[in-house]
Structures
1.
Amino acid sequence: MSCNAAIRVQISPGLVIGTRRLRSALDPNPPQASRCTMPSLTRAAPPTGAMSPRRAGARRRQRTAATHGLRFAFYGRMSTVEFHDRTTSSGWQREVAEETIRGHGVIVAEYFDEGFSRRLPWSERPAAAQLMAAAEHTNRLFDAVVIGEYERAFYGDQFNAVVTTLRLHGIQLWLPETNGPVNLEDPVHQALMLLLGSQSRREVLRARHRVLAAMHLQSRVQGRFLGGRPPYGYRLADAGPHPNRAHANWGRRLHRLEPDPATAPWVRWIFQQRATGRSVAGIARELNDRGIPCPSSVDRGRNRHRTKHEWIVRTVVGILENPRYTGRQVWNRQGARTTGPAHHRVPTRPPTAQGWAESEKVIHPALVDGATFLEVQGMRAARLTQDGGTRTYVLAGVVQCQLCGRRLDSHWVNGRPGYRCRHGHTSARNRPPELAKNVYVREDHLLNDLRVRFAETVGDDGSAISDYLRTNDLTIMCGGPTREVRAYSPHSALTTRVETVGDQLLLL
């Protein structure tokens, strides 16, 4: 056959195209050595003006796909960096991805997240966020995205948001589970994606339940130390080989708490001072005056996030409230939680001992006896005034602002005990104009209102009412549009008649 003779290739019944050579037809730049005089069809010259970047990018991707197949971006993820190896985890996921796209293209870009949970949306994973940002560019390096394993990339309904965004930019999403690109118009693919999303969520919930149940049992029955920073006054000591034979063969050992000779005496001193009625602030001041290293100074390796190295009231309170100093192991004990958006967090108090796991027996040497520990809980030191008297606030610590969620500060008003909330404002800076007005409430007004509500349950004694509130973990809510007394306790029950309002209890 001469060079000018055309090869006829039948694509489908009824469709026949002519070309010199199929490879030459697909190659936009044929070799110069192939000189054929056969005339070829040419496109009309484009109109005057440069081609739009989007059209130019699409043209380049079409030429590359015709020559080498699709260009893929690979995405993978591993949950932790402590227990996973990047090379191994990325290797097997990429191997599965390459098997999925074999014969259809090559991987030209890789995005891999390390140490990020699947529960985080893609916008909060660095590598995933970079992939989505690259997908928006017209001159991106890839035409499609391939995932090594669905559960590594998506959780719950995250898939729909990601695939919708990629489709807006003309990018396919390939999965091993579909053996190719996902087609949301296919009912089978739709059902498969729903099943995979539910399976991913179920896997997380099952793993979480098993781990938490096991850790709860290990703490309560075995009294095992499950990791974390040892409390101030203790240090870690070897407790023998790991009970799991496989872990023991790898050389893993258990740890237990033992008193630290340098700091344990100061923990005992703090409890002794508090038991005598001394204020927490006074204890913190004396510790600073004596130059006693605070917890962040003693253990810098585990407290690199701490910038200040001095005793503060909150540090002393944390020691006084920690039941580990009684010799019992405690797990899942958490401090204050925060609610609301990230830019305006409101601290709230968790229910006392809700969800804790406390060992059934004494596990490590105690730094304080159980009676003294219980005695200092909830203790408030009376503050001397200039005339030598004391000011007592019966409801201190149990009055909460309904507007911002903060605890009201004890405040002496016109010779009477009261409480106020400045919504986080201090005198060190000017008051923002948008900040709500201060909340002031007199203690006698609160007690009068509580006496009416608790007349049949507690009586009219203010101290008895205060003890009842603290025992049942109740908080008085005030400062709203109308002066109402609310008690917050989603886990405790009142014997008086109440009306439920969300997760609050409105005393009637």
Note: The longest helix spans residues 187-222.
2.
Amino acid sequence: MSIEDRAKATAKDLEGKVQEGAGKVTGDREAQAKGKAKQAESDVRHGVEDAKDNVKRAID
């Protein structure tokens, strides 16, 4: 698994948390939803990378 891919997923998660938080402060429900969506995307990316790592370990 690529450290770069993990870093991108983590950055997306942080971006989502900030956007969600800003949405809560301003009362912008759309920003909150977009922030949560980015966090969910990050979770999926991490899951994909975990699966890649597991396959690689199984092959090795």
Note: The chain is about 90% helix and 0% strand.
3.
Amino acid sequence: MIDPAVIGLILIGGLALLLAIGTPVSIAIGLPSAVCLLLVAGFDNGAITSAQQMLRGANSFALLAIPFFVLAGVIMNNGGIAERLINLARVLVGRTPAPLMQTNVIANTIFGTISGSAVATAAAVGTTMSPMIRKEGYDRSMSAAVNVASAPAGMLIPPSNTLIIYSLAAGGTSVGALFMAGYVPGLLWALACALVVFFYARRHPELKGKPFPGWGVLARTVLQAIPSLGLIVVAIGGIVAGFFTPTEGSAIAVVYALALSFIYRTIKTRDLPGILYEACRTSSIVIFLIAVSSIMGYVMTFSRLPQLIAEGLFGWTDSKVIVLLIMMGILLLIGIPLDPTPALLIFVPIFLPIAVSYGIDPVHFGIMMVFNLSIAVISPPSAPVLFVGTQVARAKLEGVIVKLTPFLIVLIAMLFLVVFVPDLSLALPRLLGLVS
């Protein structure tokens, strides 16, 4: 039996080295894992077991929810939904100071809920908002920072592909419970961004609100946005009420989004091949990541690596607070260069048993991890959402990073609240009977 320390060194060292030289994340995860399995089980058994684990990881009915939700998001990205949601947000906050920035926060929260992707949200809403922002004379760097900071709210508010990934990595933690647990932290994220914008606007009195457009305009805008918001009610309401599973709800979301886009006449039949190609490309990346991560999970279980790490932490400290801070710090650092999907697939099998041993509910721990990784995807220097938001705003990266700093400080404070006040995550699932 090979020393688990050697296995850990090959896994972590190989992953770090391959990522450093620009290897795709899936290869960086799968190759060291397969090498470790070959060393542990021999060439023949290791090769067969690697293939079996990849098949087992991808062969999941629950996993079908991801490509369907991705497809629903792509359809809505191409179906003019962002513009209707932005119009709704402008009417709701038009009289507040810095109305376009507050509009950006609300639009990202609503659209991110539907698309489930922080990058897609920053791109879709940012592309629509940027011409308005430039026309109104807003500071580009600050506007880009607002867009970047508020985009990940949809990673917490359902339907969230990130929470589905956590459910799979955590051995089947209830998706419905995770979805309900994400609402309050997701809204806290949006509130934190809105507060930073509010205090920024107080120092810039030239960013005045707009006059109320009138009840007629308000009613018309709300009516135009209601069908888009209906997707959330139908898909999430049906899942929580038990009418259908998350996978069935994701398929219903596709049908709803497609029907809505055809009614709006924003998508034509000739657009469907391109939409399907985009959704398939995104989904295949995620599913392949899950497949190769199954090899890593098997190797770690076989070599007892998570238990040894847990024993090391227990031996160093028995403080629940310190252990949580260590885990959150690791996730924040690793989540900057690493996408949330592989980060969850790698660290959930390691960290979740430790958290459960301290009496932390798996649903609460899932929200902690996703909130933490949501901060990481906007943190400099290499976060993807930061690059996308800067690009669509045509701003300079260094200026955006400076303006983003207050948002990061407030969001990290919110992370402490989410970590150490479990009821923020668990109150709603308990009320609905989804967790004990």
Note: The two ends are 41 Å apart (CA to CA).
